[in-house]
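Quick log. Single chain, no ligands specified.
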Amino acid sequence: MSQSSRRNFLKHSAQTTAALASVPYWSWSEQTLAASSQDRMKIGCIGLGGMGTGDAHDHNRFGDIVAVCDVDANHRERARNDERIGKGKAQSVEDYRKVLDNKEIEVVSIVTPDHWHTKIAIEALQAGKHVFCQKPLTLTLAENLAIRAACKANPKLVFLIGTQQRSDRGLFMRAVNLVHQGLLGDIKKITCGINGSPTGGPFAKAAPPANLNWDMWLGQSPKVDYIQQRCHNDFRWWYEYSGGKFTDWGAHHIDIALWATKMTEQGSGPVEIDGTDCKHPVEMKDGNTLSDDRFNTSNDFNIVHKFDNGMEIHVTSRGDNGLLIEGSKGRIFVNRERITGKPIEEQWDKDVYGDEQLQALYKGKPHEGHKANFYRCIREGGLPVSDVYSHLQTMNLCHLSAISGRLARKIRWNAATEKIEGDEVAASMQARAQRAGFEIPKVG
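-> predicted structure:
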């Protein structure tokens, strides 16, 4: 299956909503928010590439965007003059710290490259801002601990992750509910098809374009020569800035697998991760690439996570993109285009999937759009549907997939202590050195 774009996903969600008219649906007073300027949040948007622009358009429905920030001058000026973002009036800055220093701003939207997420998010919480951040939230296992500590230190601030599959009631929420209701029996195996990273290179090194602050873009990562394919649309295919498909599609599908099996609490997780069946497009030594001019994340893999209850989660580049959930009573397949299997054809859930179940999945809140849930939680309190704590459990599996795959061997994970055990090299990959001047704040 070709990778569905975010636009197609949102289009499908709207179609699904219409198709499920028989399921009660709560609407919220977005019109009221739009009409009352006194009630509209003041928002700062940090990172305004393609995804950041789309997210900013969504935020604009709930508040006034008073600041736009990007290290690419072209991005921020386009956003400033966009009638659905800055409207020609928003503050335009290169340094995100000016957004956090703005006392007027109540909410920040962080849609930067992945290696910047944790630092900005922690500093935003410390500045008293509610946070929306795109997935994947972290670059390393150590960053998971830092983010959790910062959120626990600021319990009144709402933090939503951009894993929008958690709001699709016709596909992913329905799949999760089928498992929660016990209709598939004991879950034996979940296969998360997440595709492989693209391959490419060698790429030419060049001087950075005048509109881009390359040193700031690099942030905590090592200082290297500018390569166009390291930046903007292609940064995820370099371990220096992301985790390839492990943290890209993995942040979505592994999240659904853990949500369905109720493995989202701190202390839960696999005991062994087998990365022996993992290939890379570049030569690797001790988990590190020996090339600096080509994509280096894995293009072909099947990583197996084994749990102490006998369940396995396979994270693979092979087969269809989506989740195959196999239980003792039945199995289903779900992705952004369809949900199939005998339990769906025979509507096993027809009497146990309605308003009560939807509200339970939404942590007691009415089901509505992903960002509507965020702003509701800001006003009413409570955790959003895609909360930071459950997302960090997903990120544990994403990063463990990458570490075991980079080393091409099995590793042991202690979910209680959140440490890799019995492998010094693998354990050393739980954290990374941060470039001077771009360190992530220590919390607690």
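The domain at 6-165 is CATH 3.40.50.720 (Rossmann fold).
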